[in-house]
Amino acid sequence: MFYKSIVFLAAGLVMTATMAVGSAGWTEGLAIITLVGFGAVLISLMLARSLLPDYIAHVFSLIIGTAWSFWVTAQLLPANFTWLERWQNLVERHQRWVLQMVDGGVSYDNLMFIFQMSLILWAMGYLTIWLLFRSEQMWQSLTPGGMVLLINLYYAPKDITAWFFIYLMLSLLLIIRFNLLQQEARWRAEGTFFRSDIGFDFLRDGLIFSVLVMSFAWLTPPFVDAKSLNLLGEAQDSWQQVQQEWNRLYANLNYRPQNPAASFGQSLTLGGPRNLTADSVMDVQAVGNGHYWRATVYDEYNGSIWRTNDTDSATFDPVSPLAFPLYIARQPVTQTYTLYRNGLTVLYALNYPIGLNRSAKVTLGVAAEITTIRNPTSLYAGENYQVVSLVSQATAAQLQQSGLDYPASIVPRYQQLPDTVTERTRELARRLTMPFNNNYDKARAIESYLRNELSYNDQIAVPPSNVDKVDYILFNSKEAYCDYYATAMIVMARSVGIPSRLAAGFAQGTYDAEKGLFHVVDTNAHSWVEVYFPTYGWIDFEPTSAQSPLSRPTAPPNQGTNPTPPPPSSQDNVGKRGNIPVDEESMGGTALKIRIPWLGQITISATIIRGGFVFVGLIMLAGMAIFIFWWQRQQSTGSIFQLYRQMLRLADGLGVTMQPWQTPNEYATILQQHLPTGQGEIETITAEYVRQSFGATAKGKNAALFVSSYESYHAWHRLRSEMLRAIAKHFLPKWLLN
User: Fold this and answer.
1) What own/partner pairs with CB < 8 Å and gap ≥ 24 does 655-659 have?
2) For the chain, what percent of residues have pLDDT higher than 90?
3) I need a surface site. Which of 13, 134, 243, 320 has the fewest CB within 10 A?
4) Over the Cα atoms of the chain, what is R_g?
């Protein structure tokens, strides 16, 4: 079924998806992938309607698509490069990207994104055309382009809704035309009369119908959303981990304004400009003092990425305390959080939470300290929860006298530094802290230096890949935003022996005196520094110059350990939809926190989907595909229906097309006249086909019936050679049938 209208509609689907991605604004130069779409349509049509076996066609598509994607991407390299230099450059960059993926590094090479997106779009175009014209699976052919469009529609920095509507309209028209084509074939077989121009009428009416359907779907409010059905509750954390890995591998893309409230996970990548909105996140009412609404903490830094090694977890219910007090000079502070948006799972809290009025899954750090709290399901806008935290009231004098008696678990974990830290960064830290004899004053000296010497700029570009990021911020750009401020302070503090870590969440926000609460928006997303002091625990520091400096209490509170206050009453949340019993296995993301060694390299997160991104050399790809095809040919069984369809396809090349009124035996007689050398094989295959199709035990053409003997299988391989020779002899290779 190869009609021009279907060809144009299928080509339109592929080009719509391709041009939508090209106009999505991910990076400069991405529009060039339109050429990939054109190539995919032309080559895929030829392969789908060719006489090549399926496996050989797939190998050709893989090789041609990879080479074409290389050629298209190479157009973006400097004009003075020779073609050999272009190919060498792309191969080296791709190898570097793969190594960064495996080693847990960060890639800022947008050219690799363009190349890999070209491969994805080629595969999308090939699958669309192949499934439609070779497999005749109309519904399946719509899926590849639809998935590409949906992902870009949700994440792309530019709005591509118009392209999505065009794709939907073309899809509906294709469904209508494809079904009409099947009906026409049935009408011809039954001798039913119909007008030859009926296809135009159906397309015209189908266009009107498609516009009405899409308008109705767009204007009608949804009856239920995914949140109400709890479709994403348990999978959301896992998907966030995948997103973080994506951000690591493509750190320099233009992302749409971020939703930081839904992005706190296992890692934090030091990237480029921050694009935050003024959308409301939550209101917080706190009875007592506090600085930050913390989401999570990170302890391991590799030069580009912060990660957490906190993998222990536990489940708590509202009647049990989250934790017991370990540190002195702390007082309880009750916080009430009211959310403004759906889909959040992280529960924010001041440093050292000890009580919560709902069931939750918590991540535990050293000494069973709570570092992250997550609700087992996504939260609704308007929901609220209460947390009690023990907030430090230690004075500067107390922290100066805290000493250096660190627990054994603190020093190796929170003084870790990557090899990329430069000597002049370490020397600057030593020079700043040399006048002081305690870690509090040393940390304050580093904090003060960063606040005074670095200018705040949340639109800074990513530091060059061949330099240490902290070194570049300190000595070259002298500009930073909170992630870089905090990282610089921690690197300098750790280099002089001060245990410290990075905390992420939100700054206080704007205080509403009339309502007595803090209003927090996306732009309040923040990261800061926590420094460990013996007996006093983790203490906040603020190196970011755009934030107000922190003040310490002047009068010491009760030096004894504060009693644990009762957790907030669970009755405060009675009737809230998110307050449900906790399933011990509900947080599927826990398993994703385990890192496994791979090929002896540095351990990497288990969430990354490695197989879809690693591309081997062209020779290895071709060799593997040819081996699979050869192995399949060695098998002794195969579907007689598949053999019979392949015989009909090759017979088309000889100009012998089976007519709807012919029986298999009648058609076999005509084919034998055109191919006398294959008379025996044609008779063998036809007889087996008739027996399995119309015999007493036949199960129909779609059943998984297999040839019961080797005879038909070997007859087909002899016949195929004869038919290919006959086609070549008569110069009738039909790569594109009309």
Assistant:
1) 655/732
2) 32
3) 320
4) 33
CB-based burial label for 320 (10 Å; 0-12, 13-18, 19+): exposed
What distance in Å separates the CA atoms of residue 721 and residue 717, rounded to the nearest whole number?
7
Kind and range of the H or E run holding 89: helix 83-103
pLDDT in tens, 65-101: 999 999 999 999 888 888 888 888 888 888 888 887 8
Which of 568, 563, 571, 27 lies closest to 250, judged by CA? 27
- CA distances to 236, 295, 325, 348, 623 from 232, rounded to whole Å, are 5, 20, 35, 20, 41
d(CA 270, CA 248): 9
Question: CA 647, CA 630: separation in Å to the nearest integer?
Answer: 20
**Nearest by Cα to 121 from 88, 142, 144, 139:** 144
The predicted model scores a pTM of: 0.57
Q: Tokens 């699958």 label which residue?
A: 127
pLDDT tens, position by position, 197-218: 566 666 666 667 767 766 766 6
Q: 3-class DSSP state for residue 292?
A: strand
Integer angstrom CA distances of residue 425 from 112, 286, 312, 429, 466: 32, 39, 34, 6, 16
Distance CA 71, CA 615 (A): 16
Q: How far apart are the C-alpha atoms of 528 and 296, rounded to whole Å?
A: 11
Q: What is the mean pLDDT of the chain?
A: 79
Please give the distance of CA 280 from its chain centroid, rounded to a whole number: 25
Give me the amino acid identity at 98. V
Query: DSSP secondary-structure letter at 657?
Result: P
Alpha helices in 377-499 (DSSP H): 396-400, 411-414, 423-433, 439-453, 469-472, 482-495
Q: How confident is the model at residue 580 (pLDDT cuts 50, 70, 90)?
A: very low
List, in order, residues 6 or more apart from 170 with CB less than 8 Å away: 9, 12, 13, 16
Take residue 119 and report the two structure tokens written for it: 């491969």
CA–CA gap between residue 274 and residue 257 (Å, rounded) = 8
Task: Measure the CA–CA gap between 550 and 459, rounded to whole angstroms.
Answer: 25
Considering the domain 263-576 in this protein, what is its CATH number?
3.10.620.30
pLDDT band at 1 (very low <50, low <70, confident <90, very high): very low
- SS3 call for 444: helix
What does each C-alpha distance from 229 to 147, 232, 404, 489, 590 come to in angstroms?
21, 8, 53, 44, 23
Joined together, the tokens standing for residue 553 give: 């209490």
Domain spans of the chain, in order of start: 4-220, 263-576, 637-729
Task: Provide the token pair at 375.
Answer: 């609700």
HSE-up (13 A, CA, CB side) for residue 682: 22
Best CA proximity match to 244, nearest among 612, 607, 611: 607
Collapsing DSSP to helix, strand or coil, 356 comes out as: strand
